[in-house]
Amino acid sequence: MITENRRKETLIKTVDLCKTYSSGNEQFLAAKSINLEVYKGDFTVIMGSSGSGKSTLLYLLSGLDGITSGEVIFKGQRIDEYSEKEITDFRSNKIGYVYQSINLIPDFSLIENVAFPGYVAGRSKKDVNKQALDLLNRIGIGAQAERLPSQVSGGQQQRAAIARALINSPEVIFADEPTGALSQEQGAVILDLLTEMNQNAQSIVMVTHDIKAACRADRLVLVKDGTIEGILELGKYSPDEMKARENQIFMFMTKKEE
């Protein structure tokens, strides 16, 4: 698997990445000299216990949080050296973000929520509206396009949030516990959708604490105390391998905790 990964294209790379937060007179090192490569077309999963730094790492990789030291490199260019215009373009067009809390605008219909980032990016309203409806149809909630978030289920809201993240055709989707607020059944639908997207060449980086969700990964990154504890290469997901993957991930995590 290592040989295979060397042939892959590196999409994001970190070099001695550190992040320090201050609380009063105290400082907390949330990311400690992290060196990591995220490959184009991979479904990368970041796991770790609460407070391990997994969400911090996701925010740093996506440019949504500033680094303290080190480098985050996207397609050969350091994110921290972007101009204000470049970082705005990066966040609007290069990445999409899916949150656990969903964060849809309550007074906007689902289609308006999906289309909104396209408007912000200055694209044609007609083209954006068409693409937004196409995306909603693609993920199975086109019939709910004109409904408000409060008028649909949590799973349908999260699907709309994923469509919103896709509206500007990003190169990578970042997802922070996207199934954490959903029922097991709703969560499985979201994971199936993300897996299908990945199988169609969409790069995905997802944080989760759930081993079943982690089974969707090509590559599992285990974070502990702000450092990378280990990396597990899994290859492309197949439903037939679910139980074997669960066992493999469990054994990997258990071994790393010893």
Number of helices: 9
Q: Specify the helix fraction band.
A: 25-40%
**Average pLDDT figure:** 91
- Please write the string of helix (H) and strand (E) elements: HEEEHEEHEHHHEHEHEEH
The level-1 CATH class of the largest domain: Alpha Beta
Largest sheet: 6 strands, mixed
**Apparent shape:** globular
Strand order of the largest sheet: 6-7-8-3-9-10
How much of the sequence is in beta strands?
Answer: 25-35%
Query: Segments where pLDDT lies below 50 for 5+ residues?
Result: 1-6
Terminal Cα span: 24 Å
| Helix and strand composition category | alpha/beta
* CATH homologous superfamily identity of the largest domain: P-loop containing nucleotide triphosphate hydrolases
3D architecture notes:
The protein has helices at about 1-5, 55-60, 85-95, 110-120, 125-140, 155-165, 185-200, 210-215, 240-255, and strands at about 10-25, 25-40, 45, 70-75, 75-80, 95-100, 170-175, 205, 220-225, 225-235. By secondary structure, the protein is of the alpha/beta class. The protein has two domains: about 1-75 and about 175-258, P-loop containing nucleotide triphosphate hydrolases (Rossmann fold), CATH 3.40.50; about 95-170, no CATH class. The strands form two sheets. A six-stranded mixed beta sheet has the order 6-7-8-3-9-10, sandwiched between helices. Strands 2-1-4-5 form a four-stranded antiparallel beta sheet. It is globular. The chain starts with a helix and ends with a helix.
